[in-house]
Structure formats: structure tokens, C-alpha cells
Amino acid sequence: MNMKFKTIAAAFCMTALFFATACKGTTEKKTETVTDQTEAVEDLGKEYTSAYVCPMHCKGSGSEEEGNCPKCGMAYVANEEHSKDGHTH
Questions:
Q1: For the residues of 40-75, what is the DSSP string, one character each?
Q2: What is the pLDDT of residue 52?
Q3: Mean pLDDT per 10-residue section of the chain, whose length is 89 residues
Q4: Domain ranges across the chain
Q5: pLDDT for residue 89
Q6: Which conformational region is residue 85 in: left (phi greater than 0), alpha (psi within -120 to 50 degrees), or beta?
Q7: Cα distances (Å, whole numbers) of residue 11 to 2, 3, 35
Q8: How many Å apart are CA 55 and CA 57, to the nearest integer?
Q9: Count of other CB atoms within 10 angstroms of residue 53
């Protein structure tokens, strides 16, 4: 074998080894159960948990009635994940 081929082969092997070790563990996916997601929403403020919420989720916004956000003026939208009295509607 000539020296040029050995150099190219060595460079290829080192590059492959670098990518194999550098990317280790980055393909793992984090998963959450529906329960974890529900608990996370319940820990949020009324801008996420009210019956009507601002599409921008402005801090302090949210209402049990239709209306406009006091912060940005956008019309509230119905919160499809709203729960009242411990159950989802």
C-alpha cells in the first residue's frame, strides 16, 4: 500500500471515531406521560389554566368568561384543556 492511501484511511477512521463518540447519547428521546404534562399545566398560573386564555399567555391574564387580555388586548380563546372542579370538560 502506498503512503497516500494509508493517510487517507487513517484520516477516515479518526473522523468516524470522532463522530461516533461526539454524538453519543444525543439520540435519546425524553418522553413524558400525559399525567406528567397535566401536572405541569396545573402548576402554571391562570394564564394557562382558566376557561378562557390569551393566545400569548400574558402573565396575569386568563378568565372564566370571554373577554380581552388586559395586557396585550387580544381576544381570549377557549382553553380546551380547562378543568373545573377536578375534571376536564
A1: HHHTS-HHHHSSEE-TT--TT--BSS--B-TTT-PB
A2: 95
A3: 80 78 58 55 77 92 94 93 57
A4: 39-82
A5: 46
A6: left
A7: 15, 12, 49
A8: 6
A9: 23
Length of the chain in terms of residues written: 89
Nearest to 51 by CA among 22, 83, 25: 83
User: What does each C-alpha distance from 69 to 51, 53, 80 come to in angstroms?
Assistant: 13, 8, 17
Residue 74 CA to its chain's centroid (Å): 24
CA 25 to chain centre: 19
Q: How many degrees, rounded to 5, is the angle at CA 83 between CA 87 and CA 56?
A: 165
Query: pLDDT value at position 11?
Result: 84
Which amino acid belongs to residue 84? K
CA distance 64 to 78: 9
